[in-house]
Each structure stands twice: as C-alpha cells, then as structure tokens.
Amino acid sequence: MDESDSRGHSECTRQPGANTISVVKSIKQLLPQLEANLPTGIQVTTLTDLTTAIEASVSDVEFELLLTIGLVVLVIFLFLRSLYATIIPSVAVPLSLVGTFAGDVRPWL
C-alpha cells in the first residue's frame, strides 16, 4: 500500500431484538445505491457476513429434528409392531412440538 492508496472501514450492526438475516438482506439491497453515490474508484466489499453461519445452523437443527422424529416413529413401530398403533404417536410427536412453540409469538427467521 503506497501513500496514494487509502482505505476506510465502516461497520453495520443490528439493533437489539432485530433479526440479523433481515438486517443483512436490507443492507445488501441498499449497497448498489450506496456504490452509485460514491466517487469512482472507491470499492465496497463485505468483510464478514454472519447470515451464512446462522442459516447453516438453522438448517442443521431442522435436519436433526426431522431425523429425531423419524427415529422416534421407527422405534415406536418396532416396539408396538403395528402400523395402526404407530400412527397416533407419529401424529402426536410433531403436534406436541408445534404446541410447545405455539406460545412463542416472535416471528421465525
């Protein structure tokens, strides 16, 4: 880096209680407008983006949850050895999970 080359740093943070993914999506939508108003030769780059890690974690939790439900249903079927007797717990397990989170009024990701 020589004397004519200068760099700046700007950081965007979310407010407490805000959704990180929606904040980053909003910033990415506004970046073209920001770049259009900057002088020529100034380049805007993203240094860190936490949404990829958040989305990967949510995806992993969803997979593990579905895998767990499937294994619970399989174990119940192997224990009861009756398809009809397995249907009731197969419906009850996902419904109990939905009921558990029904009181959570915050919007999902």
Notes on the structure:
With 109 residues, the protein is mainly α. It has one domain. The chain is 61% helix and 0% strand. The longest helix is centred in the middle third of the chain and has 30 residues, at 51-80. The model has no long low-confidence stretch (mean pLDDT 84).
Key structural traits:
single chain; 109 residues; mainly alpha; 61% helix
Topology pattern, helix = H, strand = E: HHH
Number of domains: 1
Overall pLDDT score: 84
How many beta-strand runs?
A: 0
Measured as a percent range, the helix fraction is 55-70%
Flag low-confidence runs. Answer: none
Q: Any idea what the shape is?
A: elongated
Distance between the termini: 41 Å
Helix-strand blueprint:
Elements (H helix, E strand, L loop, with lengths): L19 H18 L13 H30 L2 H19 L8
Helix pairs in contact: 2-3
Give a brief description.
It contains three helices and no strands. By secondary structure, the chain is mainly α. Helix 2 (51-80) packs antiparallel against helix 3.
